[in-house]
Amino acid sequence: xxxxxxxxxxxxxxxxxxxxxxxxxxxxxxxxxxxxxxxxxxxxxxxxxxxxxxxxxxxxxxxxxxxxxxxxxxxxxxxxxxxxxxxxxxxxxxxxxxxxxxxxxxxxxxxxxxxxxxxxxxxxxxxxxxxxxxxxxxxxxxxxxxxxxxxxxxxxxxxxxxxxxxxxxxxxxxxxxxxxxxxxxxxxxxxxxxxxxxxxxxxxxxxxxxxxxxxxxxxxxxxxxxxxxxxxxxxxxxxxxxxxxxxxxxxxxxxxxxxxxxxxxxxxxxxxxxx
Length: 275
Description:
Layout: E1 3-7, H1 32-39, E2 46-50, H2 56-68, E3 72-77, H3 86-94, E4 99-104, H4 118-124, E5 133-136, H5 143-152, E6 158-160, H6 176-184, E7 189-193, H7 211-221, E8 226-228, H8 241-251, H9 257-272
Parallel strand pairs: 1-2, 2-3, 3-4, 4-5, 5-6, 6-7, 7-8
């Protein structure tokens, strides 16, 4: 089974998606039929839909899409983990078989220690009872807090989105490289090879610009904890779906057949508990 571990849907409005660049191709509706047209020629069987705005209403809408489209195998939604009533919300969302995980846009939080603040950790501890995963959306400067968090909650499954958005355009590797290795020492952490083209020069990137970052991820997590994610349609700011697919395909040519099966879908299915 070939899966995309990270993509988004939305019905566009400026009020609900203020982060979308004005004048970009993202300023329109992007829905399951649009994704299917791109995935089928590449042999994808389905995907994980990930929240794009911090709203329980959006999480419910994504689950409604999953009800009518069997290619949406799981939804990673948003809930306010700092809310004392979060368990009630988690219970309601988890009653839907398609709700597989939670994400918060930590990259936008000004507090570098946000991930390890007591009220946020308290909410994260509620996920285990509902067998929910957690997606880490962070920038490199937030990696130290992420390392502390995953060690604090060794039984909680985490997945790092977008390699923690390394500074690819600037060609910087350290201290990101060393911190990625430290994060990967915790076996409860997996990693999505996703969202990299938007961290490079949007109009001038070349495949070899990404090779050092892919190598670090593969060395740190191994083929057993890596998964492909397109970050579509956001990726279209810097590259189309096929270009993003081909980047990962080139990076993984030296893997064995079984390892390629794992990174192209098997690991995603295992991590999120979908089939």
